[in-house]
UniProtKB/TrEMBL annotation:
This is SEC7 domain-containing protein. One of its GO terms (biological process) is regulation of ARF protein signal transduction. It comes from the Eukaryota. One of its GO terms (molecular function) is guanyl-nucleotide exchange factor activity.
Amino acid sequence: MSSIPPMGQGLWRVARNQQLQQDYGDQWDAGADGDPQDLGMEMGPAPGHAPPSPLAWASRRHPQHCQGADIYQLLRARRGKEQPGFIDLEMLPPELSITILSYLNATDLCLASCVWQDLGHDEYLWQGLCKSTWGHCSIYNRRLPSGFSYRRLYMQLDEGSLTFNANHQEGISYFMSRGILVDHPKELAKFIFCTRTLNWKMLRVYLDERRDVLDELVTLHNFSNQFLPNALRDFFRHIHAPEERGEYLETLITKFSHRFCACNPALVREVGLSPDAVYVLCYSLILLSIDLTSPHVKNKMSKREFIRNTRRAAQNISEDFVGHLYDNIYLIGHVAA
C-alpha cells in the first residue's frame, strides 16, 4: 500500500482510528444540543422503559477512564487546536497505548521507541514478539534473573536464527551458549517445531545429522482424524522433504507412517491400514503430485490408472479410498510443495 507511512501499518492504524474518532466527534458536535437520536446511532428504548437522557447517553458512549485523559475530550481538544500528525500515545491510558503498539513488528517498535521511549521498551511488548516468533525456548520455562530483558532476548534469538541459517552447528551452539536452549532432543525438537525463521535447507541437514531430534519432532505431530494427504502436507510443512529420493526421504516417510497409524487406530482397523501400507500410499501420493503438477509431464495420470497402480502394491486398500486420495491431490495439489 503506497499510502501507508514508512513507519509501519501499525502506526498507520493509529492515524486511521484517530480520523474515525474525529469524524465521530463532528457528528457529536452537530447533535449535542439536540436529540441524541439525530446522530443516527441511538437505538430505541425497550418497551416500558423511558428513553435515556442525553447526559446518560453521552456517558455511555464516552466512558470516563479512571486514569489518564478522557479520550473523547482529548481528541476534541486536539481537533480544536488543529494539531496535525499522530496522537501522542503517552497521553492515552497505558493499557490502550500498549494495545496499539502490540500490532507493530520489531522494526516498527524500535522506531516507535524513538518517540515513546518508555512504551517502546515495555517488556510486555517484547515478550509477545519473542513468543510469537519463537514459540518455545528453554529459557521461557526457567526463573528469569532480575534485570532480564525480553528486548535483549529478541535480539539474541534473531541473531541466533541468522547464524543457524548460515551454519546450523554454529547457530545451535549460539543458542546454547546464551542459555536460550538446552542440549536435549525434546527441547530442540520443540524449538524447531514452534519456529518459522529457520532456513529449511539448513534444518534438513541438521535433522539428518541429529536423528534423535528428528524422532522427537515427529512425535510432536498429531495426525488424529486427518486425511492421509492432508497429514502428509502438514508433516512436510514442518520437516521439508528432500529434493531427491534417497535414504533421508525413506526415513521421513517411515517415521511418518508409524506416527500416522499411531494417531489413527480406528482408521487402521476400519480401512486396514498398516505402517507398510501407509508407506506405499505416501510414495504413490508423491509420484502422483509430481505427475499432476509438473509442466514437463504431458500425459497426466488418470484416476483409473492411479487406482490400478496403487492397488497392485497395496491390495488390501479399498478402491474408493484410493480414489479419494487421487481427488485430494487433483483438487488441492502437491503434498510436499
